Amino acid sequence: MRKHAAPSSPTLQSVMPSLPPTPDRVSEESKPLVNRGMTIAAFDGSFAPLVRPTVRRKTPWYKDRDYFLAGWLSPAIWKAAVVEAIATSCLSYVSLLAVSTLVSYNTPRIGGYIGIFNTVLLTIFIYATSPASGGHINPMITFSAILAGICPLPRGVLYICGQLLGASLAGGILTGVWGEEKAAIIHGGGCFFTPSVTSAGQVFLNEVAASFAILYLSYGVGLDPRQAVLFGPRLGPLLVGASLGLVSFASSGIADGYGGAQANPARCFAAAIARKDMSYQWIWWFGPAVAGVLLAVFYNTIPPHHTDDQQQKERQHESNV
User: Fold this and answer.
1) Which of 44, 161, 176, 306 would give a disulfide with 150, using CB separation of 3.0 to 4.6 Å?
2) Is 43 inside a domain boundary?
3) Are 137 and 87 in contact (CB under 8 A)?
4) Domain tally, the chain
5) CA quadruple 94, 99, 104, 107: dihedral sign
6) Considering the entire predicted model, what is its pTM?
7) Does 42 reside within a domain?
8) How many other C-beta atoms are found inside a 10 Å radius of the C-beta of residue 193?
9) Distances in Å between the alpha carbon of 8 and those of 32, 230, 247?
10) If we measure between CA atoms, which residue out of 127, 152, 162 comes closest to residue 53?
11) What is the pLDDT at residue 19?
């Protein structure tokens, strides 16, 4: 009787249902799933932790030539950018449409509803998108990831371009759905404020602070490589969604005529296209951009692996002594 050779590695279907989430298993599953016959967006800035590279780069990203040049012509990255475009279009459409629906109900608890809605919305979209693109769906996330050294420049630039194209499509569809008159009355569903009540400087300051809080939480619960080992690899998207819901609820009551922190330039671009008014767009872009720069400085100064580096330096010092 001829014996069949045993498979060299377990399949994803055979491992997932039967084995508990131990650190050893997480380490094994952290290998890119491309090697198992699956095409997955595997890079350090992905919200799907099991597909992130497990080997740290020895060369800092800002000294790595490939970080800036490799991947511009990669079909996989271009396809991932198309996924980002579609996901951003769908998210912007549903999000802005929901705001207009809540406003039409004249509910006094709109802040709480927005917080809950944002939590569910972003969580579902990250779960749906992260295998194919990493699940950014937001230029703020992509821009900060580029500066933090976890999203190579070609991928990041193509993602942002895709996100803007998707947002433009969503804004045009919303104009058709609402009509120009209603779109102007409801301010495109988001990203607006009343200058007579709140100054542009106040709104900008809140955008910077709230965006930084969202980025800090998103990196901590979604992109920190230690989270998959400590809490399991599947909670990240839910916790990122909860972070957005928490901050959006907390900032929703700052002033009348201002819905609180937006923290998504693509979504605000869609709202501006829907209402055909680009006024104060600089707030919704530069606020998250400043927050992204601050977060990147923090991430590069104190990276998740800083304790490992310190321990390695101590061991080298002891061996030299």
Assistant:
1) 44
2) no
3) yes
4) 1
5) positive
6) 0.83
7) no
8) 22
9) 16, 28, 47
10) 152
11) 41
